[in-house]
Amino acid sequence: MITVTIVGTGNVAQVLFQALNANKEVEVRQVVGRSREKLAPFDGQVPVTTNYQELISADVHILAVSDNAIATVAKNMPPEAGLVVHTSGATPLSALENLDRSGVFYPLQTFTKGILPDLGIIPICVEARYGEDEALLLSLASTISGTVRKVTSAERKILHLCAVFVNNFTNYMYIIGTDICEAHGLDAALLQPLIQETARKTGLMDPKWAQTGPARRGDQQTMHAHLDLLQKEEHKQLYIIMSNAIKKHYGEKL
Q1: Which residues are paired to 148 by β-bridges?
Q2: What pLDDT is recorded for position 252?
Q3: Strand 83-86 vs strand 102-107: parallel, antiparallel, or unpaired?
Q4: How many helices, marked H, and strands, marked E, lie in the chain?
């Protein structure tokens, strides 16, 4: 049995709590938060507190807080806290340098309020200062995920950068597509099967073989027609940048 305390009440904290608290191999002993209001979703299930002086001892203390709060929260952790880990993709292990036993427990996924993803299929990347703590984190991660990897701070930073491209930037493209549909009185839901098929294909083949569209096939006429339809200058610039990037892979520029 691995015992855990979660510090934080946001999206990541809630997802980890749901998965860990339902796991027979793990005991969530406590959730620590900034206010009683934010602790409400956990209250009644496990002990909760807003006071770090009331921190309950556990094998692993998970700081599921925003990146800019990690160092500050770490300073509030008592010396006897034991292994303390953060969950950030962009923050190095050194952010916990004031703690002797420190590590990282990073679920490589996007988390949105009200939507609980299946952690069983989400990669969890772990890192620790000491080998025995790394082994502990690998064991903990393996209780809730089928994909667990040892990843250094430098490697995790690269993965986080890649995640911005494949998730954050891609989602913004969905926003643009939706806005353009709505501006012309079209139902953006018509795009959903296309979005889902594009994502499905990435699991079946290398993305470079899945690329389609006018830039991929060098269809200058269609690309210029699209530019004429775009009403916002920032959308035109994005269209040109993206099309030229694709063309650089497969052919001449727009």
Answers
A1: 124
A2: 59
A3: parallel
A4: 11, 8
Looking at the DSSP bridge assignments, the partners of residue 61 are 5, 84
Per the prediction, the chain carries an average pLDDT of 92
CB–CB of 10/32 below 8 Å? Answer: no
Residue 30, pLDDT > 60, answer yes
DSSP 56: P
Which is nearest to 61 in space by CA: 100, 23, 90, 22?
Answer: 100
Taking a C-beta distance cutoff of 8 angstroms, is the pair 20, 4 a contact?
yes
The DSSP result for 81-120, as a single string, is G-EEEE--SSS-GGGGTTSSSEEEEEE-S--BTTB---GG
Residue 254 has pLDDT above 50, yes or no: no
With residue 214 as reference, give the H or E element that holds it. helix 214-217
Which of 20-24, 46-50, 242-246, 250-254 shows the lowest mean pLDDT across its residues? 250-254
**3-state DSSP call for residue 47?**
coil
CA distances from 161 to 13, 89, 90, 214 (A): 22, 9, 8, 27
Between the alpha carbon of residue 163 and those of residues 94, 107, 156, 168, the distances in Å are: 22, 12, 10, 7
Mean pLDDT of 193-208: 91
Give the integer Cα–Cα distance in Å for 6 and 148.
Answer: 20
Paired sense of beta strands 60-63 and 148-150, if any: unpaired
SS3 46: strand
Read off the pLDDT of residues 115-148 as tens digits, 9 standing for 90 and up: 778 888 999 999 999 999 999 999 999 999 999 9
Q: Report d(CA 9, CA 33) in Å as an integer.
A: 6
Q: Are 188 and 197 within 8 A, CB to CB?
A: no
